[in-house]
Amino acid sequence: MGKDLLLAIDTANERCSAALLRLSDGTFAAIREEEIGRGHAERLMGVIEEVLTEAGADWSEIGKLAVCIGPGSFTGIRVGVSAVRGLELSLGLRAVGISTLEALAEPEWSEGPVLAVHDARRGELYAALFAQGGDPLRTPEAVTPEALGTFIGAVGAGLRVVGTGAEIAREALGEDAASFLPDRRFASLAALARLAARREPGAPPLPLYLRGADAKAQTPLGLRAAAQA
């Protein structure tokens, strides 16, 4: 049996997802996307085993790996990237890292340019802009809603806006600035797998962090105060 399967995983946000795509014809042998919120580290390997079982496949048939590198949940991104880096070593394979925003935009860019925006909290959005067909116009950045107009520039007619930040973008840019698709909230695992199948692996995937973690390390004084509380 040849190594015809690409294993793609995504733990960057609320979902814990895995898919198996046949490299020979681009069809999916199995795909599972679970909304779990938290607990990706505990659930991920089980999800992978479930897609292997559903596909009637085993680890020896996997020939390529892919992972969503963010932006998104700091913990979730670390879980996914660490798991794939471990699988690279154990299976002797190479992996492709795909941005959350690129996978989010991919299903729409056949229709025109796409702005992918993820609500990053703290008054910011993670944003990336793609031309029709997928060429990047602006790579992922953390921006304020007020800066979105400058970020997209003179992108032209037909702009489509997707992601958890689509409603924020509508308020910032105005109703007539684009077609806003708030139901397209999360990156498509199928899109991630399709992108990875076409891309040659390079350096091992690394998390894509666009700003520091929300949780800040406590000082020794803070730790003592917490212990006394």
How much helicity do the residues have? 25-40%
Broad structural category: alpha/beta
Q: What is the terminal separation in angstroms?
A: 60 Å
Count of distinct strands: 10
What is the makeup of the main sheet? Answer: 5 strands, mixed
Which spans have pLDDT < 50 for at least 5 consecutive residues? 214-229
Q: Total number of helical segments?
A: 7
**Average of pLDDT:** 89
Order of helices and strands: EEEHEHEHEEEHEHEHH
Beta-strand residue fraction: 25-35%
Radius of gyration: 19 Å
Shape: globular
Strand order of the largest sheet: 3-2-1-4-5
Commentary on this structure:
The chain is an alpha/beta fold. It has helices at 40-55, 74-91, 100-105, 148-152, 166-173, 189-198, 220-228, and strands spanning 5-10, 15-22, 28-35, 62-70, 95-99, 114-121, 124-130, 136-143, 160-162, 179-181. The chain has a five-stranded mixed sheet with strand order 3-2-1-4-5, with helices on both faces. It has a five-stranded mixed sheet with strand order 8-7-6-9-10. The radius of gyration is 19 Å and the shape is globular.
